[in-house]
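Action item from last week, closing it out:
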Amino acid sequence: MNIQENISLKQFNTFGIDKKARFFTAVQSVSDLKIALTWAKEKHINTLILGGGSNILLTQDQEALVIKNEITGIELVKEDEKYYWVEVGAGVVWHDFVLTAIQNEWAGVENLSLIPGTVGASPMQNIGAYGVEIKDVFHSLTALRKSDLELQEFDAKSCAFGYRESVFKHELKDKYVICSVIFRLNKVAAYHTDYGAIKATLAQNGIEHLNLKSISDAVIQIRQSKLPDPKEIGNAGSFFKNPSIPASQYESLKADYPEIPGYPNDEGVKVPAAWLIEQCGWKGKRLGEIGVHSKQPLVLVNYGAGDGNEIKKLAEKIQKSVLEKFQIEIHPEVNFL
């Protein structure tokens, strides 16, 4: 096992924040992972597991062994008349898996095209976009328990999925390392085109007969038009979750702000955080080397030499202004480290 010391993590996080890892290694298998965790335990050093680094904000150097999860593999493990069960290594780039699914006509993840990050993070965050969430296609995952290096399987119920939430962000945070995920994908596609601009984009592209690729292409087109490429400008995609508020509060706000968008759900009404942030005047605002994206106020950006603590303070200012103006709390989707 190759353990490096004092390694910059700039290239390993999509914000491009230049913080250091006291120790760093990459693992390509479960046995590699066990060796790395054992080494850290013997040295009494904490561990931090990194996937694509697309949902983290580094605010300090990491006095830990940072383990880059590069466990790969995409394998069809079972099928019946309705479904395919596909096992995917946690280190596989999410969009690469989506493209493989489309190529093989495994339906269900096409609306999740171009989401940054790796497969291992997908159930942890219950990632979602354009009317689809991981929980809709999730079957199970295998994770390594850090305390005794035993593998454990988790089904959907034990993952306790919520909106951009799972048990791995709460009770089991830092206790397990996800090694692989099994998705249950459809043999017959159920196309989701009602969310966002998908229908309009399909029409614009002249698509008359839907297929997985046409849906994926539309989603990619929409995302690229709204979201900055992390290779060009540092960001972690959507920084805040969309809040849900009681229906009574929404109706009260609608009296003052007739144009406020809202989507009824089990918790009341979901209000787009991007709209709230824009109403508070943050869209396109630049503060030195950091700021809020000019096209999508949900995205905080690092123009090059920004620091994680500066972005954290900006996020706190945005939260405060939204709370003061609308009495709505918005919470980060990004994990602060």
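Closing note: The chain has a mean pLDDT of 94.
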